[in-house]
Each structure stands twice: as C-alpha cells, then as structure tokens.
Automatic annotation (TrEMBL):
Name assigned to this protein: Coat F domain-containing protein
UniProt xrefs under Pfam families: Coat_F (PF07875)
InterPro entries in UniProt: Spore_coat_CotF-like (IPR012851)
Length: 81
C-alpha cells in the first residue's frame, strides 16, 4: 500500500466520520449532545481539509474548474425554486 492509497483511505474515513457527526448534530436530543457532536464535526472537518490540502499539494487530489456558464445555470435553477 503506497502513501497515496493510505491518504485516500484516510480522506474517505474522515469524510464518513463527518457524515456521522453531522447527523448526530442534527438529531441531538439535548443542547449538550448537540454541542458535543458539533465540536467533533468541526474538528473532523478541519482534519479533512488538512488531508485534502496535503493530497492536493502532491497532485493526488485534483479538481477541475467549473465553467462559469454551468455555475450560472445551476444558480438560476435554484433561484427559481
């Protein structure tokens, strides 16, 4: 298993944790539980961002720039809702 594969796995696990913490935050029955999940979510989002930045710096996670025309089209679709 090479470094890229390890980082991809870390990113996927971290994204999964973010999803779980988000749902925990939304479904929290009390403010204390809500705050605990919210804190965990924010910490995990920071970890996810760090992993993404490291992968991006190595060229292991590339994104392509969206065309402005496509962005405008989507914005207009949501504006009409």
């Amino acid at each position: 298993m090479d470094d890229k594969c390890i980082m991809e796995n870390l990113l996927n696990v971290t994204k999964g944790a973010c999803d779980l913490y988000l749902h925990g935050t939304i479904e929290s029955p009390t403010m204390n539980v809500h705050q605990a999940f919210d804190n965990a979510l924010n910490d995990t989002l920071c970890m996810q961002d760090d992993i993404y930045k490291k992968m991006s710096a190595k060229g292991w996670y590339t994104t392509e720039q969206a065309e402005q025309q496509k962005i405008s089209k989507i914005k207009n679709q949501f504006a009409g809702m």
